[in-house]
Design brief:
Number of strands of chain A: 11
Shape of chain B: globular
Structural class of chain A: mainly beta
Number of helices of chain A: 0
Distance between the termini of chain A: 35 Å
Helix content of chain B: under 10%
Helix content of chain A: under 10%
Order of helices and strands of chain B: EEEEEEEEEEE
Shape of chain A: globular
Oligomer: heterodimer
């Protein structure tokens, strides 16, 4: 079934550890996004990519990095996790940046202790 | 900052009722999305619209660009409609979407 796959679905992590959340889509979408969802705050954009090879910062990029080596994959890395990064992370894609329907992954619940 | 406001925050309805969820915003936009998030977390796109009205089954979305307002209507509501409904803006400038904090809908049998 076409769509977006995120991994892991859930992770508990010690503060200071490095963590990579994986995101893969098979729809050949150009644009991909990483959001975090926190209670009462709604979805907030961390990083985005208009097309393979390019990335950009969103609203809350500090402490996170991304790469877009190819069309399908858009991993999100926490270089040194902190408790404030405890959140639910969603990867999303659309055919073109800022246009087209948004498709979301199932989310990755991350707890940093 | 509150570029997008949704109302109500919480809504409880009896099965069969007509439901309206509102989204007001303060920036110029090129499009607006309505999203649905069920308990358990998955997010699904319901509509993307830039003008007028769209209908899909029992769901209707409208937008008034001049008044900076959109509504999501659910006709003949059903318990399976229970979810959080999120409004998301595509502003005319910049690279970000702006998301509302969502309306939590519970439909009671």
């Amino acid at each position: 079934i076409a769509g977006i796959t995120q991994a892991p679905t859930s992770q508990i992590l010690a503060a200071g550890r490095r963590m990579t959340l994986r995101c893969t889509q098979d729809m050949r979408h150009n644009a991909m996004y990483w959001y975090r969802q926190d209670l009462g705050l709604g979805l907030r954009l961390i990083h985005y990519s208009n097309t393979a090879g390019t990335t950009g910062k969103g609203e809350v990029p500090d402490g996170y990095s991304v790469s877009r080596a190819n069309t399908d994959d858009f991993p999100l890395t926490l270089a040194s996790a902190v408790p404030s990064q405890t959140s639910v992370y969603f990867c999303a894609s659309s055919a073109w940046h800022r246009t087209g329907e948004l498709f979301f992954g199932e989310g990755s619940r991350l707890t940093v202790l | 900052k509150n570029e997008v406001e949704q109302s109500p925050q919480n809504l409880t309805a009896q099965e069969g009722e007509f439901i309206t969820i509102n989204c007001s915003y303060s920036v110029g936009i090129s499009a607006l999305h309505w999203l649905q998030q069920h308990p358990g977390g998955g997010i699904v796109s319901l509509f993307m619209l830039s003008s007028g009205k769209k209908k899909h089954g029992r769901l209707i979305a409208t937008i008034n660009i001049q008044e900076k307002h959109s509504s999501l209507h659910i006709t003949a509501s059903h318990p399976r409609d229970s979810a959080v409904y999120i409004c998301a803006l595509v502003p005319n400038t910049g690279n970000q979407f702006y998301f509302g904090t969502g309306t939590s809908l519970t439909v009671i049998p």
